[in-house]
UniProtKB/TrEMBL annotation:
InterPro entries associated with the record: Isoprenoid_synthase_dom_sf, Squ/phyt_synthse, Squalene/phytoene_synthase_CS, Trans_IPPS_bact-type, Trans_IPPS_HH
BP-aspect Gene Ontology terms: carotenoid biosynthetic process
Record protein name field: Squalene/phytoene synthase
SUPFAM superfamilies: Terpenoid synthases
Species whose genome carries this gene: Rhodopirellula maiorica SM1
EC number: 2.5.1.-
């Protein structure tokens, strides 16, 4: 039977109004990233808001209180909604919402329908204007879908694939909005997403354990003599310190590689990219100062870290004086050069 779609259920929302909805969702998220959107020219900022609102809605479906099977079915619905409205669709056609999962209308489903109607005109407009491949949007949903089915990772490669979906795909979509000089810096963008997500995994290790989730790969914690229970009930011991230190070193290498995005990004996007990169890189530095503290509290940036990063990026003379590459990257490049020259 052909699927049933609701075309323009309510009054069609204009693109301008839709961008306003997307901005509201982005602003209310309280994300570390939202401030950096203001470094973009208006049209790119609006597009970023629509991308962020899309990612927020996707995450909210994945994080809601319903059983995993229901969350999964609504994510499938959301994936289908994105596919039918963004792939080969004429920008002027009305928004179509497929039927929701039969017999499953949790309370928030009405809000989800409304949010979909509200942000899709903007997301479709931004995707067309900046030629964002819809593949990336679908991959982001696939990442959140995978999160419903899997709460453990055996190998680093499995974690890496998950991080690609939920973070690198976001970065690749951002690059289309910022614009870049051909060719697309694919490897650097993927590494940058992996670096951000790995930092996120370290920061949120306690919160995730409370939800019964372990993102650190089993392969890694077993190497340090830890088992699943140790990760779920974290204790500040030396084994945990070594494990976290290893992950920090891995994340640092990914940050270094991720910085290479800078060379290809259009000048419009550079301040935002730099601010995002330096924010998350600083977070990693804060984690490194006392690695096992992640077992007792969620590490955040201090007020002075935040003010410093904001003023470095929003005041143009200060932005121009920022070291490129950042000191962390320059230092590791120097170390690599030294190793190279002392090699027999
Ligand atoms: C090329 C490039 C720019 C790659 C990076 C792509 C990117 C922005 C990935 C986001 C991954 C991430 C840690 C999201 C958390 O968002 P959140 O809003 O929940 O963050 P918060 O919890 O720190 O506020």
């Amino acid at each position: 039977m052909a699927p049933e779609y609701h075309h323009g259920m309510n009054e069609e929302i204009s693109v301008a109004a839709s961008y306003r909805f997307a901005r509201r969702i982005s602003r209310r998220s309280g994300s570390n990233f939202y401030r950096s959107f203001w470094l973009l020219p208006r049209s790119k900022r609006q597009a970023m808001c629509s991308l962020y609102a899309f990612a927020r809605i996707t995450d909210d479906i994945g994080d809601c209180d319903e059983p995993a099977a229901i969350r999964g079915r609504w994510l499938e619905w959301w994936r289908q909604t994105i596919a039918i409205n963004l792939i080969n669709e004429n920008e002027s056609s009305t928004i179509a919402l497929p039927e929701g999962p039969i017999g499953e209308e949790p309370k928030w489903a009405a809000r989800l329908h409304r949010q979909a109607q509200e942000i899709l005109p903007a997301l479709r407009h931004a995707s067309t204007q900046y030629k964002i491949p819809s593949r990336y949007l679908l991959e982001i949903i696939d990442g959140v879908l995978a999160d419903q089915q899997k709460t453990r990772f055996d190998t680093y490669e499995q974690l890496e694939h998950y991080c690609y979906l939920v973070a690198s795909a976001v970065g690749l979509a951002c690059l289309h909005i910022w614009e870049f000089e051909d060719p697309l810096p694919l490897e650097a963008a993927v590494d940058c997403g992996l670096a951000f997500q790995l930092t996120n995994v370290l920061r949120d290790v306690v919160e995730d354990a409370k939800r019964g989730r372990i993102y650190l790969p089993r392969q890694h914690y077993e190497q340090h003599g830890l088992c699943e229970d140790d990760i779920l009930t974290l204790r500040r011991d030396n084994r945990l310190r070594c494990l976290i230190q290893d992950e920090i070193e891995r994340a640092k290498r990914l940050f270094d590689s991720g910085w290479r995005v800078w060379d290809s990004v259009h000048p419009d996007g550079r301040p935002m990219f730099s601010m995002m990169w330096r924010t998350y890189r600083r977070l990693l530095t804060r984690i490194e100062e006392d690695p096992t503290r992640i077992a007792v509290c969620r590490i955040t940036l201090s007020q002075s870290d935040r003010i410093g990063i904001v003023s470095q990026h929003f005041w143009p003379p200060s932005f121009r004086r920022l070291p490129v590459p950042p000191v962390e990257v320059a230092q590791s490049r120097q170390q690599a050069d030294r190793k190279e020259t002392t090699r027999p």
